[in-house]
Amino acid sequence: MSQLPYHYGVKLRIFPSNAQKVLIKRNSDASRFIYNEMNGMNKELFRLRQVKIPITLVQERIQTLKQRLKNPSRGISNIHGWLNDPDLDSLMKANAIKNYRSAWNLYRKVHHSGTPVFHKKRVEQTYQTSCVYSSKISLPNMKNGSVRIIDLRHVHLPKLGHLRFKGMAQKLFKRRNDIRIGTTTISMDSTGRYYVSMQLASESPFVNKVNKKIVSSIGIDLNTDNFLTDSEGNVIANPRYYRSIKGKLAREQRKLSRRQLRAKKEHRSLNDSSNYQKQRKVVANIQRKVSNQRKNFLHLTSTTLIKNHDLVVAEELRSKNMLRNHALAMSISDVGWRTFLQQLEYKAKLYGKRFITINPKNTTQTCHDCGFIMGTGETKKLTLSDRKWTCPRCGIYHIRDCNAAKNILAKGIASK
């Protein structure tokens, strides 16, 4: 897969039978167990290495853990025999081990991300498998691997067999003879819907690049008042999907909390409390609706920007730091800036365009026409409430967000 130049991801909704749902849960639990076992062995090994006294028992235990971590698939399965059950996918085990090692690699590269932690048992289920091709196959594609598309409505997955699905684009299905399938993730969300996500790769592009060269550059300023203001003066309103259902969600969450307290007073497990589970799904459905609305809005906006411009420049935002402002935390989370910037980044590569981010320092305080910076001399810096201002040097009247977008574009062009 890594040798192929073009990659793409697709997520399909699947409709498993009751027996297949049981298999998905068992594989999900096994994947989480293997991940946690590796995490537990590493934590124990770290603690034992702190013992400075050369105790024979400690040294033997250290050597045992080292051997198990060298070949964790065999080491864990030998102790926990239920992992050798034929219903469990062997590639699921390999992917769980790979994900744990990837988490450590991420920690070493980005230290503030934290060391791997134990995965808790949740309502959601997920595990990964891989598409394997026989060595006898001369041309691997979407039709002849262990994960394969049978027709426009059915997919075959290891251990699960045939499942009905929906959501595949016609353009991908028509090209199934020259597309390979890589890592595949089977998941269930909190509302009980099942999905399969597939990593695709091909030697030809997945999207048709625009033949006509569009010589156009644009700078965008992201804010909570309006979602986006560009350097051409266009404004995209902030839909505020979460705020629109905040009251309804709060009512349903209060009802959920009451049912949880009642179940605990009656000493009933939440898993066996039908009223609690019904209400939990009501809350989860509201949250899923908001999430889908936001994703759809961000996808439409980012695709339009990338398709219509050769260069898109945005400010480099650190959402984690901005969320510390409790007055704006909910608005920042609702708007989805980080997701939007990530979409612009990968779509620019997909369509052969360019997307860059710049340091936002003084982009709001600087006059685009004469370069005067507010806060210098006897002037005061602009506050968040100052949406319009006049430059004290050249006298040009500015709309704050549009002026910032022009400065962002100028910085981006200068950094090319």
From TrEMBL:
Any keyword Zinc? yes
Pfam assignment, any one: OrfB_IS605
Which family, according to UniProt? Answer: In the C-terminal section; belongs to the transposase 35 family. In the N-terminal section; belongs to the transposase 2 family.
Ranges for domain Probable transposase IS891/IS1136/IS1341: 212-325
What are the Cas12f1-like TNB domain coordinates in residue numbering?
337-408
- Report keywords, A-Z: DNA recombination, DNA-binding, Endonuclease, Hydrolase, Metal-binding, Nuclease, Transposition, Zinc
Q: Where is this region: Disordered?
A: 253-278
Give the Basic residues compositional bias ranges. Answer: 256-267
InterPro entries in UniProt: Cas12f1-like_TNB, RNA-guided_DNA_endo/Transpos, Transposase, Transposase_put_HTH
**Can you give the residue ranges of the Transposase putative helix-turn-helix domain?**
9-43
Nuclease is among the record's keywords: yes
Name the chain's protein.
Answer: RNA-guided endonuclease InsQ/TnpB family protein
UniProt GO MF annotations = endonuclease activity
